[in-house]
């Protein structure tokens, strides 16, 4: 076989390339070399683009159509407000010190700086028994979800809330847990979907939920904005313990809770033996671009064969990750000083005020609205409508980008998610536009 | 079944915990709850701790034994010299600007800032046809190796150089490509080991190498320090094309090349259809703690079914990663300005001078030494000795930490790796100690 063996086809991407990028001017498009590597069957199973890039693509299309439109982005939950100076100063100082003999540091511990692990344990888990060594600093919870999937492997069974943040399910598909996508149900065959809506107070009916190894659970929820109550989480922990399941609890929005709902799964007795918690500085401190988060794996969490889960997670972190950026970690530490925390919480309050304005706006249009009280997301119901239709309708009528609820799973059909992350003037302008068009 | 069902055992980790950490004072150790989640069989197959934490554990043990010893760390390849001010200033300014309305930015593109992708393409791949959009910015090549494994999945076959950087193999085991570890050979059953040593000028005998889907290839090599020649890499590319394989080429040490060997696999004709390149700012600019790297996936690289690999890698990056820290990216951009690059290359020259001193030292002891010319690693041969024995012997006699060659695979047995990353005074002191003990 010649080393210039070729596959007989004219791939679309090649056709779109400028000719200069082809190896030789005379090379025929039909003789392009392709490898014999079989595409990962799990990636074949992913149904569509990851949600947010898909929305971005549609936004770009809209901008081409309306080049003069002033678009307001209430789609991806992306922080907009400057980070308090006390935090960026600490990062800047840390960065500058890297130019000095005394301040230079190379590799840090893969699990994170000791001082930061301790500060996280003390700030978010006071009196909950979380030890510093159980806290693993990450570059964000989305990244740690994939590392958890590497930990768990393809053989575990998985449950997700429906609707849910797409990273849980997409990473399940990529690692090979999900099975085939079924067009009839719009669900992956091997994933247990726990429907959460107004009919069940956004908490799954556990009496009809099948046992799975892993239960992804996000509270306050993205996208519905619902914070599970102490009673609901107690049921969840009992369910997980009875079934020998592991809960992967995502508390990325816990600082937005205002009604006394639990901010951590470890507030629930018995959870240390059945729950991992992932969280993030992204929405606490505007670190979406800085990249910093953490995962807690309690010592008492064991596999069926009695090996502690923390042992394997430590191995994954050491092998597949090399620690979060040391500068970002310096920023995280500054966030958790008393002054730093006060400063970031004032930004959180600003977004909460935005959420109130959005709730009031959509309510005034006669719509039923959920979320927005314990979370920076407002979940608006359009009974009888399709989410992508409403997404397009709102975009076309008001130049406001939202997120179609169906992007979070079939349980999100008929809803749109609106983010409260935004500059106040834009939130107010969005409110005016919506009222003008729909009131 | 009770929700307080328990497994009947007294796990070691629990016994070591202070009593206060147990749920209730009267809780019996024999009634600890464990889940029914089966441990990932791939993690069962990992043979030992990840190499560097293992060395660190032995170093700590040594420090307990000799609390007054002045230990010199020539083990893990960790940069020691301050980062030039022009780069840290840029990071500090970027960080400070995050406190301003104008300078604040949230999520960046998952694939990296456009300007940085462009600068990487222009700085490292000038005239090699690499497009900006083929460059994916990462938080380091070790992290991207794991993301590549998520891309490839468990069904591909893999070849590694022997000896090799442990992240390739360990990540292969974790994703499920490696099969069982065989005690007789000290090799994983399903991995093709391509022995590289002085007998074959550190380049595998491809006539006896089995075809695999993936070939991990590191040049300049970690740990041997060998930079593959143009002729060797031409053979490798021809071999990959003939077999329809994908080369994952690790060029993390390319700036250390002094003898004109290729700095990128894309210098070899035909490589764009068969090679991915991973690289890193860690050893270019002392970014081991800052965390920044990149991966190039050419448009012309296709799976057997004609899907472009870049399509799936983009999906992995968007789903399993959220971009490198924006502050680190600002630092990377500063590295690639003319002044920045000149400044970081002067630090590279400093480490190269260290390497010369180490080569001279071990040579003067009558040992045969490889590497150190095109790489910051010196690969010292101790014929007839075991690597871990030499590691311990050197540590005990001189308080110098090295890396046992066998930690990089069976082909590294009889060698130790010594890093040239270090402060000059420590390198000189190490030289004196080694000569005093062994001359």
Automatic annotation (TrEMBL), chains A, B:
A Pfam family reported for this protein in Swiss-Prot or TrEMBL: Aminotran_1_2
GO molecular function, one term: pyridoxal phosphate binding
Essential cofactor(s): pyridoxal 5'-phosphate
Matching InterPro entries: Aminotransferase_I/II_large, DapL/ALD1, PyrdxlP-dep_Trfase, PyrdxlP-dep_Trfase_major, PyrdxlP-dep_Trfase_small
Domain Aminotransferase class I/classII large: 70-430
Cellular component GO terms held in the UniProt record: plastid
Keyword Transferase applies: yes
Keywords per UniProt: Aminotransferase, Pyridoxal phosphate, Transferase
Signal peptide: none
Domain of life: Eukaryota
GO biological process assignments: defense response to bacterium; L-pipecolic acid biosynthetic process; leaf senescence; systemic acquired resistance, salicylic acid mediated signaling pathway
NCBIfam families: DAPAT_plant
Family: Belongs to the class-I pyridoxal-phosphate-dependent aminotransferase family. LL-diaminopimelate aminotransferase subfamily.
Record's protein name: Aminotransferase class I/classII large domain-containing protein
């Amino acid at each position: 076989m010649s080393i210039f063996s070729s596959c007989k086809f004219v791939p679309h991407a090649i056709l779109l390339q400028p000719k200069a990028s082809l190896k030789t001017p005379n090379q025929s498009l039909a003789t392009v070399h392709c490898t014999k590597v079989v595409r990962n069957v799990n990636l074949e199973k992913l149904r569509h683009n990851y949600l947010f890039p898909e929305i971005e693509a549609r936004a770009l299309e809209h901008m081409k159509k309306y080049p003069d439109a002033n678009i307001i982005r209430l789609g991806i939950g992306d922080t907009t407000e400057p980070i308090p100076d006390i935090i960026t100063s600490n990062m800047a100082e840390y960065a500058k010190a890297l130019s000095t003999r005394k301040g230079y540091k190379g590799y840090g511990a893969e699990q994170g700086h000791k001082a930061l692990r301790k500060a996280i344990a003390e700030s978010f888990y006071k009196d909950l028994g979380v030890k510093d060594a159980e806290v693993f600093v990450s570059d964000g919870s989305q990244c740690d979800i994939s590392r958890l999937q590497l930990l768990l492997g393809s053989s575990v069974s998985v449950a997700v809330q429906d609707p849910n943040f797409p990273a849980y399910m997409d990473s399940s598909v990529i690692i090979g847990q999900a099975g085939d996508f079924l067009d009839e149900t719009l669900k992956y065959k091997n994933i247990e979907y726990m429907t959460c809506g107004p009919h069940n107070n956004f908490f799954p009916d556990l009496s009809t939920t099948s046992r799975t190894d892993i239960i992804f659970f996000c509270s306050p929820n993205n996208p519905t904005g619902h914070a599970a109550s102490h009673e609901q989480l107690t049921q969840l922990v009992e369910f997980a313990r009875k079934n020998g399941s592991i809960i992967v609890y995502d508390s990325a929005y816990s600082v937005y809770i205002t009604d006394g709902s639990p901010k951590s799964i470890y507030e629930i007795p018995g959870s240390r033996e059945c729950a991992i918690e992932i969280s993030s500085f992204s929405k606490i401190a505007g670190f979406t671009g800085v990249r910093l988060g953490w995962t807690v794996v309690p010592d008492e969490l064991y596999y069926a064969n009695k090996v502690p889960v923390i042992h394997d997670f430590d191995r994954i972190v050491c092998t597949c990750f090399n620690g979060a950026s040391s500068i970002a970690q310096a920023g995280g530490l500054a966030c958790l000083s008393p002054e730093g925390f006060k400063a970031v919480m004032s930004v959180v309050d600003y977004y909460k005020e935005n959420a109130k304005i959005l709730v009031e706006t959509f309510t005034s249009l006669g719509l039923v609205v959920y979320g927005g009280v314990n979370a920076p997301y407002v979940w608006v119901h359009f009974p009888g409508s399709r989410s992508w239709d409403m997404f397009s309708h709102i975009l076309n009528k008001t130049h406001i980008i939202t997120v179609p609820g169906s992007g979070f799973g079939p349980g999100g059909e008929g809803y749109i998610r609106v983010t409260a992350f935004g500059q106040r003037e834009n939130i107010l302008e969005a409110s005016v536009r919506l009222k003008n068009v729909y009131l």
